[in-house]
Amino acid sequence: MYNSKIIGLGKYVPDNVVTNDDLSKIMDTNDEWITERTGIKERRWVKEGSGDTTATMGVKAAKMAIERAGISKDDIDFIVFATLSPDMYFPGPGVQVQHALGIKTVGALDVRNQCSGFIYALSVADNFIKTGMYKNILVIGSELHSHGLDKTTRGRGVSVIFGDGAGAAILTREEGNKKGILSTHLHSQGEHAEELVLKAPGMGTRWVNDILADNNEDDESYFPYMNGQFVFKNAVVRFSEVIMEGLMANGLQKEAIDMLIPHQANLRIAQFIQNKFGLTNDQVFNNIQKYGNTTAASIPLALTEAWEAGKIKEGDTVVLAAFGSGFTWGSCIINW
Ligand code: UT7
Questions:
Q1: Minimum CA distance residue for ligand 1 atom 24
Q2: Residue nearest to atom 36 of ligand 1 (CA)
Q3: Which of 7, 203, 308, 310 has the greatest number of C-beta atoms within 10 Å?
Q4: Which residues are catalytic?
Q5: 160 CA distance to ligand 1 centroid (A)?
Q6: Residue 30 Cα, ligand 1 centroid: separation in angstroms?
Q7: Mean pLDDT (the chain, rounded)
């Protein structure tokens, strides 16, 4: 019987810091609104010409994770890459990582579950390890949002929230079923697909040539849309449900949580969950203040920084949870 265990974590964020005050110079917004509603003070946005892409940022985070895991790239049996912002429409960035790192021709899977992407990716990797099929799996979450945001007042409800960055983890086989990833729990509710969505370009909506032919500046379909309040209300319910589901599946009470790392969607959502589960500030790790919402990268970025800060110790019960576009949501319960 096997479990999977995280033995290496890495991160990468672009150098370019964009503060709330910087945004107030390009659109009608202000630091007070953004801080009060989201907790975000600044985010990283890739600078044009820097060479950073979703794939290259993922590669940098992966290199750090591999080094910290103390393994070689040749030990990696499989790659899972979660993103909603791939460099190319197809193929996805998993294969770019395989090539850039010079990993042998192992499988590379792309996961498209937006804010829940990293939990979905971990779940896939964990189950490949639990079945005995693979031993070491590289899991990456990376996003380059900034090129695709509407950075005018029209898009301010979305663009002030999202940031760029990447995180990565190495999962390895662990004998027995007491340590490492105990379980993952995944959900979806497609009836709300259009409440947090990027509609175009899409084969079922409008492809690039339709957009170019229309040449319509009022067309918003190729910018992300979010029904913020509706998403918020669903998020707080689903976060709580899926954390409880994970705890109960392992016979744990909420008091067992040593560290909760919620997807960094909004500091107010994280604080709501913290209060609901009766956790102290030391038991919840947030870094949305520095990075904004980095979607599939947010959990590995936060997990890496929590680990770097010495906030996660061997034997701790670590809970990861996410909710986002789809709607999709999920949790992961770890005995670290
Ligand atoms: O990661 C995936 C999951 N995502 C989430 O969980 C996000 C969940 N939702 C949220 O976090 C919040 O809904 C937001 C932070 C996105 C928005 O906060 P809100 O309190 O729901 O604001 P709102 O959209 O209802 O807008 C309130 C007002 C509006 O003005 P009026 O109509 O009241 O005059 C907006 O036009 O705030 C205005 N507004 C802004 N003002 C200044 C919207 N964006 C901005 C802005 N700066 N950036």
A1: 228
A2: 157
A3: 7
A4: 115, 263, 293
A5: 10
A6: 12
A7: 97
From 326, 331, 196, select the one nearest 273 (Cα to Cα): 331
* CATH superfamily ID and name for 181-335: Thiolase/Chalcone synthase (3.40.47.10)
Cα–Cα distances in angstroms (integers) from residue 279 to residues 258, 265, 271, 305, in the given order: 9, 18, 9, 19
* pLDDT tens per residue, range 213-264: 988 888 888 899 999 999 999 999 999 999 999 999 999 999 999 999 999 9
Contact between 90 and 147 (Cβ < 8 Å): no
Give the binding-site residues of ligand 1, using a 6 Å CB cut-off: 29, 33-34, 37-38, 115, 156-157, 160-161, 228-229, 231-232, 235, 265-266, 269, 293, 324
In the chain the beta strands, taken as DSSP E runs, fall at: 2-12, 17-19, 42-44, 78-82, 107-111, 136-143, 165-175, 180-188, 196-197, 225-226, 259-262, 317-324, 328-335
* Residue 205: pLDDT over 90: no
Give the per-residue pLDDT at 196: 97
Atom 42 in ligand 1: residue holding the nearest Cα: 29
Q: Give the CATH number of domain 2-176; options: 3.40.47.10, 3.40.50.720, 3.10.180.10, 3.10.20.310.
A: 3.40.47.10
Helix, strand, coil percentages (3-state) for the chain, rounded to 5, are 40, 25, 35
Place of tokens 């175009």: 200
Tokens of 245: 């589901």
Q: How large is the angle between the packed helices 298-308 and 117-130, nearest 10 degrees?
A: 70
